[in-house]
From TrEMBL:
Cellular compartments annotated: Cytoplasm
Protein name: Holliday junction branch migration complex subunit RuvA
Organism of provenance: Gulosibacter macacae
InterPro entries per UniProt: DNA_helicase_Holl-junc_RuvA_I (IPR013849), Hlx-hairpin-Hlx_DNA-bd_motif (IPR003583), NA-bd_OB-fold (IPR012340), RuvA (IPR000085), RuvA_2-like (IPR010994), RuvA_C (IPR011114), RuvA_C_sf (IPR036267)
UniProt superkingdom: Bacteria
Helix-hairpin-helix DNA-binding motif class domain: residues covered: 72-91, 107-126
GO molecular function, one term: ATP binding
Gene: ruvA
Chief localisation class: cytoplasm
Protein backbone atom coordinates (compact mmCIF):
# COMPACT_ATOMS: atom_id res chain seq x y z
CA UNK A 1 0.00 0.00 0.00
CA UNK A 2 1.24 3.50 -0.84
CA UNK A 3 0.70 5.53 2.35
CA UNK A 4 2.55 8.69 1.29
CA UNK A 5 4.57 10.19 -1.54
CA UNK A 6 7.29 12.84 -1.52
CA UNK A 7 8.42 14.28 -4.82
CA UNK A 8 8.40 17.16 -7.27
CA UNK A 9 5.26 18.53 -8.89
CA UNK A 10 5.64 17.60 -12.56
CA UNK A 11 2.14 18.52 -13.70
CA UNK A 12 -0.87 20.20 -12.13
CA UNK A 13 -4.51 19.76 -13.10
CA UNK A 14 -7.63 21.33 -11.67
CA UNK A 15 -8.03 18.43 -9.25
CA UNK A 16 -4.96 16.28 -9.75
CA UNK A 17 -1.19 16.34 -9.62
CA UNK A 18 1.57 14.27 -11.18
CA UNK A 19 4.29 13.79 -8.61
CA UNK A 20 7.77 12.86 -9.83
CA UNK A 21 9.24 10.48 -7.27
CA UNK A 22 12.76 9.40 -8.25
CA UNK A 23 11.88 9.53 -11.94
CA UNK A 24 8.52 7.81 -11.60
CA UNK A 25 5.41 9.91 -12.16
CA UNK A 26 2.44 9.22 -9.89
CA UNK A 27 -0.94 10.62 -10.90
CA UNK A 28 -2.80 11.61 -7.73
CA UNK A 29 -6.36 12.90 -7.37
CA UNK A 30 -6.62 15.83 -4.94
CA UNK A 31 -9.15 18.53 -4.10
CA UNK A 32 -9.23 21.68 -6.26
CA UNK A 33 -8.33 23.79 -3.23
CA UNK A 34 -5.30 21.61 -2.59
CA UNK A 35 -4.25 21.90 -6.23
CA UNK A 36 -4.27 25.69 -5.96
CA UNK A 37 -1.78 25.47 -3.08
CA UNK A 38 0.80 23.55 -5.13
CA UNK A 39 3.37 24.95 -7.53
CA UNK A 40 5.04 23.33 -10.53
CA UNK A 41 8.53 22.10 -9.63
CA UNK A 42 7.99 22.37 -5.88
CA UNK A 43 8.71 19.42 -3.59
CA UNK A 44 5.65 18.25 -1.70
CA UNK A 45 4.63 15.38 0.54
CA UNK A 46 1.18 13.86 0.18
CA UNK A 47 -0.53 11.42 2.48
CA UNK A 48 -2.19 8.99 0.08
CA UNK A 49 -4.82 6.29 -0.26
CA UNK A 50 -4.63 3.65 -2.98
CA UNK A 51 -8.00 2.50 -4.31
CA UNK A 52 -7.90 -0.70 -6.35
CA UNK A 53 -10.68 -1.36 -8.86
CA UNK A 54 -11.13 -4.05 -11.48
CA UNK A 55 -10.10 -1.70 -14.25
CA UNK A 56 -7.70 0.69 -12.50
CA UNK A 57 -5.61 1.58 -9.48
CA UNK A 58 -6.25 5.15 -8.33
CA UNK A 59 -4.25 7.29 -5.92
CA UNK A 60 -5.92 9.96 -3.79
CA UNK A 61 -3.80 12.56 -2.03
CA UNK A 62 -4.31 14.58 1.13
CA UNK A 63 -2.60 17.36 3.04
CA UNK A 64 -2.28 15.29 6.20
CA UNK A 65 -3.37 12.16 8.02
CA UNK A 66 -6.54 13.73 9.42
CA UNK A 67 -7.88 14.29 5.90
CA UNK A 68 -6.95 10.73 4.97
CA UNK A 69 -8.79 9.36 8.00
CA UNK A 70 -11.92 11.33 7.13
CA UNK A 71 -11.67 10.02 3.55
CA UNK A 72 -11.52 6.47 4.91
CA UNK A 73 -14.55 7.11 7.12
CA UNK A 74 -16.53 8.45 4.17
CA UNK A 75 -15.63 5.64 1.76
CA UNK A 76 -16.68 3.16 4.43
CA UNK A 77 -20.27 4.38 4.03
CA UNK A 78 -22.46 2.45 1.59
CA UNK A 79 -23.02 4.49 -1.55
CA UNK A 80 -20.11 6.88 -0.97
CA UNK A 81 -17.24 6.17 -3.34
CA UNK A 82 -13.77 7.73 -3.44
CA UNK A 83 -14.87 10.44 -5.90
CA UNK A 84 -17.78 11.51 -3.68
CA UNK A 85 -15.60 11.35 -0.57
CA UNK A 86 -13.05 13.66 -2.19
CA UNK A 87 -15.93 15.90 -3.23
CA UNK A 88 -17.02 16.18 0.40
CA UNK A 89 -13.47 17.10 1.41
CA UNK A 90 -13.43 19.69 -1.38
CA UNK A 91 -16.37 21.46 0.25
CA UNK A 92 -15.76 20.67 3.91
CA UNK A 93 -12.45 20.37 5.72
CA UNK A 94 -12.17 17.84 8.57
CA UNK A 95 -13.19 20.44 11.17
CA UNK A 96 -16.17 21.66 9.16
CA UNK A 97 -17.24 18.09 8.46
CA UNK A 98 -17.21 17.26 12.18
CA UNK A 99 -19.34 20.33 12.88
CA UNK A 100 -21.81 19.50 10.09
CA UNK A 101 -22.25 15.96 11.40
CA UNK A 102 -22.59 17.14 14.98
CA UNK A 103 -25.27 19.68 14.03
CA UNK A 104 -26.94 17.28 11.57
CA UNK A 105 -26.56 19.93 8.88
CA UNK A 106 -27.77 18.15 5.73
CA UNK A 107 -27.44 21.32 3.65
CA UNK A 108 -23.68 21.28 4.16
CA UNK A 109 -23.50 17.96 2.29
CA UNK A 110 -26.10 18.75 -0.38
CA UNK A 111 -23.74 21.35 -1.86
CA UNK A 112 -21.38 18.52 -2.81
CA UNK A 113 -21.93 17.34 -6.42
CA UNK A 114 -23.37 13.84 -6.46
CA UNK A 115 -24.53 13.91 -2.84
CA UNK A 116 -28.31 14.02 -2.61
CA UNK A 117 -30.65 14.20 0.40
CA UNK A 118 -30.56 10.45 1.09
CA UNK A 119 -26.77 10.28 0.94
CA UNK A 120 -26.46 13.38 3.13
CA UNK A 121 -28.65 11.77 5.78
CA UNK A 122 -26.69 8.53 5.53
CA UNK A 123 -23.36 10.32 5.97
CA UNK A 124 -24.61 12.07 9.09
CA UNK A 125 -26.11 8.86 10.48
CA UNK A 126 -22.98 6.80 9.84
CA UNK A 127 -20.49 9.40 11.10
CA UNK A 128 -22.44 10.52 14.16
CA UNK A 129 -20.27 9.82 17.18
CA UNK A 130 -17.29 8.80 15.06
CA UNK A 131 -15.88 12.29 14.55
CA UNK A 132 -15.07 14.44 17.52
CA UNK A 133 -15.09 18.24 17.46
CA UNK A 134 -13.83 19.69 20.78
CA UNK A 135 -14.95 23.23 21.51
CA UNK A 136 -18.36 22.70 19.93
CA UNK A 137 -20.08 24.80 22.56
CA UNK A 138 -17.99 27.85 21.66
CA UNK A 139 -18.72 27.48 17.95
CA UNK A 140 -15.11 28.11 17.03
CA UNK A 141 -14.63 25.86 14.04
CA UNK A 142 -11.01 26.85 13.58
CA UNK A 143 -10.01 25.33 16.90
CA UNK A 144 -11.85 22.07 16.39
CA UNK A 145 -10.03 18.77 16.19
CA UNK A 146 -11.09 15.45 14.82
CA UNK A 147 -10.38 12.12 16.37
CA UNK A 148 -11.06 9.24 14.02
CA UNK A 149 -13.02 6.39 15.50
CA UNK A 150 -10.39 4.04 14.08
CA UNK A 151 -7.76 5.66 16.33
CA UNK A 152 -9.89 5.05 19.41
CA UNK A 153 -10.62 1.49 18.30
CA UNK A 154 -6.91 0.79 17.79
CA UNK A 155 -6.09 2.04 21.28
CA UNK A 156 -8.91 0.04 22.88
CA UNK A 157 -7.66 -3.05 21.05
CA UNK A 158 -4.11 -2.41 22.26
CA UNK A 159 -5.28 -2.03 25.87
CA UNK A 160 -7.31 -5.23 25.69
CA UNK A 161 -4.22 -6.95 24.31
CA UNK A 162 -2.35 -5.76 27.40
CA UNK A 163 -4.93 -7.45 29.61
CA UNK A 164 -7.34 -4.58 30.29
CA UNK A 165 -11.04 -5.55 30.34
CA UNK A 166 -12.91 -4.22 27.28
CA UNK A 167 -15.29 -1.97 29.24
CA UNK A 168 -12.46 -0.49 31.30
CA UNK A 169 -10.39 0.11 28.17
CA UNK A 170 -13.24 1.98 26.47
CA UNK A 171 -13.80 4.16 29.54
CA UNK A 172 -10.08 4.96 29.78
CA UNK A 173 -9.95 6.02 26.11
CA UNK A 174 -13.06 8.19 26.44
CA UNK A 175 -11.65 9.92 29.52
CA UNK A 176 -8.29 10.41 27.80
CA UNK A 177 -10.01 11.99 24.79
CA UNK A 178 -11.81 14.44 27.06
CA UNK A 179 -8.51 15.50 28.61
CA UNK A 180 -6.93 15.86 25.16
CA UNK A 181 -9.77 17.99 23.80
CA UNK A 182 -7.45 20.57 22.25
CA UNK A 183 -5.33 18.01 20.44
CA UNK A 184 -5.68 15.59 17.55
CA UNK A 185 -3.94 12.60 19.10
CA UNK A 186 -2.43 9.80 17.09
CA UNK A 187 -2.48 6.22 18.37
CA UNK A 188 0.73 6.44 20.49
CA UNK A 189 -0.36 9.72 22.12
CA UNK A 190 -3.85 8.45 22.90
CA UNK A 191 -2.48 5.14 24.17
CA UNK A 192 -0.13 6.89 26.59
CA UNK A 193 -2.96 9.10 27.83
CA UNK A 194 -5.27 6.09 28.31
CA UNK A 195 -2.57 4.23 30.22
CA UNK A 196 -2.21 7.23 32.52
CA UNK A 197 -5.95 7.10 33.17
CA UNK A 198 -5.76 3.41 33.97
CA UNK A 199 -2.81 3.99 36.28
CA UNK A 200 -4.66 6.74 38.13
CA UNK A 201 -7.72 4.56 38.57
CA UNK A 202 -5.83 1.90 40.46
Amino acid sequence: MIASLTGLVAHLGASSVVLDVSGVGYHVQITPAHALELRHGAEVRLTTALVVREDAMLLYGFRDQSEREVFDQLTGISGVGPKSALGVLSQLGPDELALAVEQEDEKAFKQVPGVGPKTAKLIILQLMGKLRAPGAASGEVGTRAIVSASTSDDVVEALVGLGTPQKQAVMAVETALERLDNEVPDVPTLLRAALRELGGAR
